[in-house]
Amino acid sequence: MLDSNKDALKLEAMKRIVAMIARGKNASDLFPAVVKNVACKNIEVKKLVYVYLVRYAEEQQDLALLSISTFQRGLKDPNQLIRASALRVLSSIRVTIIVPIMMLAIKEAASDMSPYVRKTAAHAIPKLYSLDPEQKDQLIEVIEKLLADKTTLVAGSVVMAFEEVCPERIDLIHKNYRKLCNLLIDVEEWGQVVIINMLTRYARTQFLNPNINEGGGGDKTFYCSDEDEDEDEEKEKKPYVMDPDHRLLLRNTKPLLQSRNAAVVMAVAQLYFHLAPKAEVGVIAKALVRLLRSHSEVQFVVLQNVATMTIKRRGMFEPYLKSFYIRSTDPTQIKILKLEVLTNLANETNISTILREFQTYIKSMDKDFVAATIQAIGRCATNIGEVRDTCLNGLVQLLSNRDELVVAESVVVIKKLLQMQPEKHSDIIKHMAKLTDNIQVPMARASILWLIGEYCEHVPKIAPDVLRKMAKSFTNEEDIVKLQIINLAAKLYLTNSKQTKLLTQYVLNLAKYDQNYDIRDRARFIRQLIVPTEKSGALSKYAKKLFLALKPAPVLESPFKDRDHFQLGSLSHLLNAKAGGYQELPDWPESAPDPSVRNVEVKESVCGPARVCPVNTFPTNRHSSAPPLILISASSEPDTGSGSESVSVSVESGSPSDSEESEESSESDEDEEEEEKEKKKKKKEIKQMQASESRARSKPDVSFQTIAPSSALKNYELLHRITGEGLSVEYCFSRQAFSPDANMVAVQMHFTNNATSDTKNLHIEDVKLQSGMRVKEFAEIELLPAGEATTAVMGVDFCDSTQAANFQLCTHTRKFFVSIQPPVGELMRPVFLTENEFKKEQSQLMGMNEISENLTLDAKCRNEHAIVQRVTTAANLSRVPCGSDKECRFAGKTVTSGSLVLATVATKDEGAAQLTVNCEKMVIGTMLVKDLLLALTQ
Amino acid sequence: MIHSLFLVNASGDIFLEKHWKSVVSRSVCDYFFEAQERATEPENVPPVISTPHHYLISVLRHRIYFVAVIQSEVPPLFVIEFLHRVVDTFQDYFGVCTEAAIKDNVVVVYELLEEMLDNGFPLATESNILKELIKPPTILRTMVNTITGSTNVGEQLPTGQLSVVPWRRTGVKYTNNEAYFDVVEEIDAIIDKSGSTITAEIQGVIDACVKLTGMPDLTLSFMNPRLLDDVSFHPCVRFKRWEAERILSFIPPDGNFRLLSYHVSSQNLVAIPVYVKHNITFREGSSQGRFDLTLGPKQTMGKAVEAVLVSSQLPRGVLNANLNPSQGTYTFDPVTKLLTWDVGKINPQKLPSLKGTMSLQAGASKPDENPTINIQLKIQQMAISGLKVNRLDMYGEKYKPFKGIKYMTKAGKFQVRT
Q1: Which of A935, A796, A800 is nearest to A873 (CA)?
Q2: Where is the AP-3 complex subunit beta C-terminal domain positioned along the sequence (chain A) (predicted)?
Q3: Of the four, A447, A672, A877, B90, which is 20 to 30 A from A116 by CA?
Q4: Chain centroid offset of residue A593 CA
Q5: In angstroms, rounded to a whole number, what is the distance separating the alpha carbons of residues A286 and A605?
């Protein structure tokens, strides 16, 4: 029929084939016949062919290629629906060969006139990505472009694509953040869910915790920071001001709580739960309670989430307590979840109503539910002391219930409760002892036996009797009960050996020949422990302490207790296990990242007119108005203390471009906090600098022409105070030239004597080096008094390798083996080059000598200044002036061989950057690239 | 997102499958069947099942399980809500959503699913957009199609898809312009043994059937809008206007839709329309039990209580019931132990009652649980919360529409504990 030239017949044939596919029957034999019809004029036939093609193309790759040209033609059709569906099918055919065609089609469609086609393009991105992850970079470009799209139709789909392809590229969102917030309400509902979830994650990385000042709330991350305390205090005093963008998000999502789509409501609820200040979270309760009227599957998911929320924010749902009351018609799983919520909500004021409710539940016909209710009562009783006795009495009454499951469950719960206050309840224990004749459920029997054993002193008469009965039935019991019988026997033997000695022996003998090795083991162990023999060691003296130690009462807690580390509403949260592709919800940052990244150049930017402040109010201390100075020598520069910034800026070429200026200016207000921090850091730096300066001054001969170290020096540990018996040694690469030998790297050592006695004759001995390496020792330090510190400089020629220099550090009493391993960045010293020289040198170091790497800059390292600082911290290089503000160049040469090392960081949009290192020594080059990458991305 | 969809009927057969990405073998459903076996009741199957490689999310509607296969993290509600939307769409298209209806229209179902999801992500779920893409099958249309050879599938992109009002298509024309609104309220309540109310709330909806030409802009205002403090809207309602003036302003979709649903939770606003006097006892030692039930109207504001249906799940020990209704009929299913009593209208002069004895299984001890009584009822011409529509205005079009509003109260989950 497919070969017929009548459309009606073809249609009929296709319908039958599709019906086959639907039933799961294999129809792949017909592939060639069907594919022919892909160009059919009749649109319904065409669509059915598409359905067929998508289903079987993967299996018949070669034949599927025949249809590609039709789609390519379809992509140029004037009808947008046809363009879109051609793209849809093309991208749904999972044939690897056509990846380039798909890529091209997606790129083209991404700039299509019709938003519908653009939407389809966004849908096609994850398809292509799953087919060929290699295309990621190109796809990210397309995503970036589509993210900038202003139509609501596209927004949802492209965020979906973003989440599947590159959820880690949060930097792509910055510029679109405000637009997404404002469009949100008009986006179709499925898109809303995805966008809200993504924005939750985004906000967690970009804004401060709104509940920070209230302390508590479990948000301890902030206090765990290892920053010194006074800084914490300072921050706490500062009132928290919510970022206007944060507020914008909360404001724009709130109306969506009224959506008819449960998924949207849930998404907003989790957003509020994770992001909103405590006072505002309450609004979601009402909406969530409303969802409880929906289908039972929806109820199930919502209740799971409510259960988690009630643990953290109980007050939120308290007014809605009654909405969680259970109806006899609810499915069991819903009942149990509601019970969980009710238990979580219980407190002193409402416990009586809740317990009354529970009483009715116990009479339910659904036994699983009754068992859960009994456990819930147990939990209420442990959590709320006032009602413990009432609960206990109620549970004891249940012991006379006819249903065995109910009784067993109550026994287990009573056992837990009794452990909290055993003294008062010996009559209950007696009552339970009587029950042993009737109850058959092993768990319950075991619980009773344990109770009697534990509190045998309260029931001295009954306990041996119970043991007697149990000994009789020992062989017929379950394993768990047997263990408890042995346990009971042992405890009784210790407290009341007169009456029970024989019984215990008997039980232990029975256990000795049990089938279960656990029980045999236990019996052997207990026999050794309690029965005094001539050989019995010291342990048996403590037997009583071992067995009759006070046991802490068990804590009954909710299974939902720790679930809130998963993003609420997610699959992972529901399963309490990480599902594939789950994105962790990051912790709040300690300080807000630069909010100006969200500024959009266009004037219509919605929020915050106060954002951009005029340039002239810009604090002048940030840029020292130094002329484009190029050479600074460490000793001649009087104001080293002005910190790293002045240095790096002064090396900057003539006039910093305007755009940069304004960009930086916009951060000024919000950044005060950060600035303060920075100042602190600077102060620290200054101290260090002064220290190193003073050291430098003590050696006036170091007037060597170098470029000042542009950042704080990193200290490494050579000898820990504990291994060094009070002597601790730290070293740093001072980046000064080592005067006695220019080929050596200067290592500054800082000795501290923490011991109580003086250390004498500090010197180096027994230097073990790789061939070619040399060491120039420091002069022997004759005396280091207790509590004092001193520094010394030694020189090491590492031969341009990162091999460690091993030697012994000797005092008058001890020798310590130590080693110094240089980071590759310290094996070079800065040289000054002009831009032209740099380019010339670079052009000679191409090919094998050039290593380049793409990277994404760390969020805090987007501006030029930060890049310069990070690079110069990581490697002893100097900045090369350069005309373009997109590139930072650095130059240096290796200490020993003097080969040039050139590094270039070219920044692109959105934090992408390229790092290029040119070096004759390829090993050094590769290692340097690694180190710099690390420095720039972290 | 959604990888595949399987439709499973009550007897456990997969009768339809659709894959949006690579094909997932049917055998993945075995995990689902396992869970199904473990659950005693069909509705006790957990909605989310985790298997080694996939996650199964299922919903049960009309005795058909819709099982979606997921491979990675996705909000479960997203999938559940979508599956329900699929069922709603089927119902919209075929009138009913049964296995037979789906099997008969398997091609349309396939076309619909193809349009609703692209690569597992929802594409078009708005019913009027779908209806333009794929026309619902009617007998008339099938005949016309066979004669003229035209198809069921639209050739143009639905206009709604691109407009700011995606829920409405352009160029709607009617000869009779009419707009009907139904205010339907359901009472959810739990009444305890002694007849006092434990919880009571009202779930209300306003369903609309709007058949108006062109692009009308409607506003609906209420006499007492303050009642509505917990509402959810159809996307067409302008939320800002509601916040500011408490007026519903919207461009309606074409045809039937749910304009708004609301929730009145404060108990004192909820009137309980009926009371139940009951006396259900089992005597210790004898194999007989007494059953005595009387219904009477309570706060009904003079309106008649109609279509009353009482049902109760009697304890497992009950063998049979020998009862005598003063009106209506009763049935007792000895297998499921479900007692239903179709009362009909309650006459305040002569209260309906159901009296008699129950026989217990010989030797069985007295059941210690008491059955709960579920009641269904209807009250016409009244919204029990007292919500009243003030007026409906139309802007943007010249003609005068025919307007109508209807109120109705029903019992939702109305339970009496005994």
Answers
A1: A935
A2: 681-803
A3: B90
A4: 17
A5: 33
The pLDDT of residue A608: 36
Question: For position A423, what pLDDT does the model report?
Answer: 65
Question: To which residue do tokens 């045809």 refer?
Answer: B255
Q: For Cα atoms B265, B270, B273, give the angle at the middle one, nearest 5 degrees.
A: 145
Residue position matching structure tokens 């012991």: A399
Sign of CA dihedral A750, A755, A758, A763: negative
What phi and psi values does residue A884 have, to the nearest 5 degrees? -85, 140
Q: Sign (positive/negative) of CA torsion A654, A660, A665, A670?
A: negative
Distance (Å, whole) CA B405 – CA B382 = 11
Calpha distance A235→A80 (Å, rounded) = 56
pTM (2 d.p.):
0.68
Instruction: Convert the pLDDT of each residue in A781-822 to its tens digit.
Output: 888 877 788 888 888 888 777 777 888 888 877 788 888 888
Summarize pLDDT for B253-292 with one digit per residue, the tens: 888 888 888 888 776 667 888 888 888 887 776 777 888 8
For the residues B29-50, what does the mean pLDDT come to? 85
**Structure tokens that stand for A627 in this block:** 């002329």
Structure tokens at A21: 């596919």
CB A930 within 8 A of CB A918: no
C-alpha to C-alpha distance for A295 and A482, rounded to whole angstroms: 47
Cross-strand partners of A810: A763, A815
A607-to-A15, A610, B325 alpha-carbon distances in Å: 55, 9, 70
pLDDT in tens, B157-185: 565 555 666 777 777 788 888 999 999 99
Q: How far apart are the C-alpha atoms of A750 and A575, rounded to whole Å? A: 54
The token duo for A802 is 């990162």
The tokens describing A391, both together, are: 């609960």
H or E stretch covering A302:
helix A296-312
Residues of chain B with C-beta less than 8 angstroms from the C-beta of A48: 107, 111
CB A872 within 8 A of CB A879: yes
Task: Find tokens 């790759």 and name the residue.
Answer: A61
- Asked whether residue A104 carries a pLDDT value surpassing 60, the answer given is yes
pLDDT confidence band for A553 (50 / 70 / 90): low
Instruction: Report d(CA B377, CA A825) in Å as an integer.
Output: 83
Preferred mutation among B85, B88, B91, B107 to probe A, highest tally of A CBs within 10 A: B107
For an interface test with B, the pick among A365, A403, A563, A583 (most B C-beta atoms closer than 10 Å) comes out as A365
Residues of B in contact with A571 (CB under 8 A): 48, 55, 70, 73-76
Separation of alpha carbons B386 and A491, rounded Å: 70
| Dist. CA B252–CA A90, nearest whole Å | 36
Six token digits for residue A639: 């104001």
**A37 phi, psi to nearest 5 deg:** -85, 10
Integer CA distances (angstroms), A728 to A716, A719, A763, A782, in order: 11, 5, 14, 16
pLDDT at A603: 38
Torsion of CA A16, A21, A22, A25, to 10 degrees: 100
pLDDT tens digit sequence for A494-524: 777 777 778 888 888 888 888 888 888 888 8
Quote the radius of gyration of chain B (alpha carbons, Å): 25
Partners of residue B231 in chain A, C-beta under 8 Å? 258
Which amino acid belongs to residue B346?
I
**Structure token pair of residue B162:** 């691109």
Cα angle value A158/A89/A27 (rounded, 5°): 135
ipTM score: 0.87
B115-132 average pLDDT score? 81
How high is the pLDDT of residue B66? 92
Take residue A652 and report the two structure tokens written for it: 């900057």
A327 in contact with B, Cβ within 8 Å = yes
> CA A881, CA A833: separation in Å to the nearest integer?
8
